[in-house]
Amino acid sequence: MQLLRPKSFSKYKLFEKIGLATKSAGIIVIYPALVLYYLFQDKNVPTRSKSMIVAALAYFIFPIDSIPDMTPIIGYSDDIGVLYVTIMQLVKYITPDILIKVKIKIADWFGEIKVVEKQEQRFLKKINNEKETE
Question: What is the pLDDT of residue 2?
Answer without folding.
Answer: 45
